[in-house]
UniProtKB/TrEMBL annotation, chains A, B:
SMART domains: HTH_LACI (SM00354). Keywords: DNA-binding, Transcription, Transcription regulation. Pfam families: LacI, Peripla_BP_3. Residues 14-68 form the HTH lacI-type domain. It comes from Actinacidiphila yanglinensis. This is Transcriptional regulator, LacI family. InterPro entries: HTH_LacI, LacI/GalR-like_sensor, Lambda_DNA-bd_dom_sf, Peripla_BP_I. The keyword Transcription regulation applies. The keyword Transcription regulation applies. GO terms for molecular function: DNA-binding transcription factor activity; transcription cis-regulatory region binding. Signal peptide: none annotated. CDD domains: HTH_LacI (cd01392), PBP1_LacI_sugar_binding-like (cd06267).
Amino acid sequence: MRRAGTSQDGRRRATVTDVARHAGVSTATVSRVMNRNYPVAAATRERVEASMRELGYVVNAHARALAGVSARTVGIVVNEVIDPFYAYIARGVEREAAAGDRLCLVCCTQGDPQRELAFIELLHQRRADAVILVGGSVQDRDYVAELGRRAEALHADGSRLVLCGRPGLGEGAPTARVEYDNEGGAFAVTDHLLTQGHRRILYLGGPPKLSTSRDRLAGHRRALKARGVAADPALVRPGPFSRSSGYHRMAELIDAGPDFTAVFAANDIVAAGAAQALEEAGVRVPRDVSLVGYDDIPVAQELRPRLTTVHVPLEEMGRQAVRLVLADGEEDDWREQPTGVVRLGTHIVVRDSVAPPGNGVRARRS
Amino acid sequence: MRRAGTSQDGRRRATVTDVARHAGVSTATVSRVMNRNYPVAAATRERVEASMRELGYVVNAHARALAGVSARTVGIVVNEVIDPFYAYIARGVEREAAAGDRLCLVCCTQGDPQRELAFIELLHQRRADAVILVGGSVQDRDYVAELGRRAEALHADGSRLVLCGRPGLGEGAPTARVEYDNEGGAFAVTDHLLTQGHRRILYLGGPPKLSTSRDRLAGHRRALKARGVAADPALVRPGPFSRSSGYHRMAELIDAGPDFTAVFAANDIVAAGAAQALEEAGVRVPRDVSLVGYDDIPVAQELRPRLTTVHVPLEEMGRQAVRLVLADGEEDDWREQPTGVVRLGTHIVVRDSVAPPGNGVRARRS
DNA sequence: ATGAAAGCGCTAACAT
DNA sequence: ATGTTAGCGCTTTCAT
């Protein structure tokens, strides 16, 4: 390995010491010029800046961080950057971080909790100002306990674990949280279907262990109950949050499933898959069957008919996640408390995929 | 500001020294245990590891980097994380980086070249192993020269500037490059339209100063020329790479534009907007007018009719970008050379949005 | 307004 | 196999 400080062409890179010598000042002065946090004579400043330019000086962020300055970094851990749900949240985080003059370390777990833990560790090693965990997770007892320990460790180092769109870790854990009304959105959209007259609603759910899935299903059930509609277990079909899963589950159920006149897909991606299966089976939306999704990502507007769904303020969640723990300039007072929760609303957005019950899909077991 | 090394509860965080003392060994041994790069007696190792656990020791990546070890970080600079074009490339970068045990700093410029420069600087300060610039850019002379200087500076510090899907910086610049056959894809898809019998093809281009736009337009023109079809300037309409721009430009041209029987949108997003305008105007695709896009991002499969487009190996571009400059383990031989280029192919993917010329859209100026 | 010098936490010679 | 120690490049008291 190349020795530290030695460049490709063998010339050492410039350091504060070099700049100081070149400008005929001390390193302290150079530091003061860079950080503008202390008075420096205009002439001196000029000279130092000229030297920096001439030597092609680039400050070493690691040295700076080691000397006790914040690394100005926030870490964000998501399943998948290409999934719009995460991408929008990531955008919010990135923008708010950039506004606070910070850079963003993005980590993708691909849904693997072990990888999630590993990334938290890596971000802790880099002394990230905050570590933001995004999206639903398995709520396994041991896992939650382990996360609690990590939260503790981060907090002890002056950083913070932020849970964005996922449940808390229990009383003790020093985490901040950004929630959205997941259950409420599911309630609202189910109620919308009910209001149109639907009674047999097929629920194409998410992975059953994910907190997000559970909350949405809970909202759905509460809505049914509120209207006194019996919850038929045959109408609840959990599965992965993927387009292909939506497609396959839907195709299967059209072929040999229970009767239904409406479909509630637990997210828009699953809805897109379901829409294709419906289309291929010649089932017209919304004339024969109504369809709704969840999240309100762009695909909802591209589907035909355009998809009625639940809007989730994804980008805002990302922004709040960083704002919650990183107040720049202002007094630290209330932010010093280790836990803080922000709760954002969701709302239904009505488009063209819902109508009163039509022919529906009838059981036609072979 | 809280003093470095002092945690929330006032207890100092553990350092190698603490671990060493606790385990009754020297700091060197602790380091050797962590890095597994040197023999350590099994018993000693156990003891050290126990101490690390007990003290909740988390290595400080900055101290490590300062001591001369790579920061194991790659920087990626994109326009926008929620744009699938960039998101897929970012995914490739992230995965390849993770495979090489590195973390990924993601920066969004929102299309602003100044911000791009600022991010390059920030990534240099953090001593990223590589800085990957993604997507087309303005090829303004001064700007290219400035980028060249940054490439030089990075290279002098043992890092590398990688241009991913954008033109080189000229002979001298020590950059690596990942290209894709942008011009060729545009040629192929135009030729496809021509083969179907189209002669009046409306070209809904990208921003005229972007290299990506230029290359695509060039391919389009070459295809026309190859078939001896005159290039009508009225049929070339540049504009932003956005859905709304596609929508508005299309609507306007339907209303009061030149005749055409096919539309080539310079990317799928623009195509999605155009498709909506066509739909609203009652122009049927592909019966009345054929439509093609570029990039082959997921929306192409959601549109109805499904969009014929040009596939670009986005994720692979991202992977290659990091692979090109960061070979782990293997000999450095050929990678030592400051410049390297990888060129990836593109290919047309035929779906349902193209047919022989139909009624087309006729000029009906008000 | 500026300088001198003591760390920050780690790694890698160099010793033993 | 393990210990000693000299930096890595910066910030920040404490002097002046």
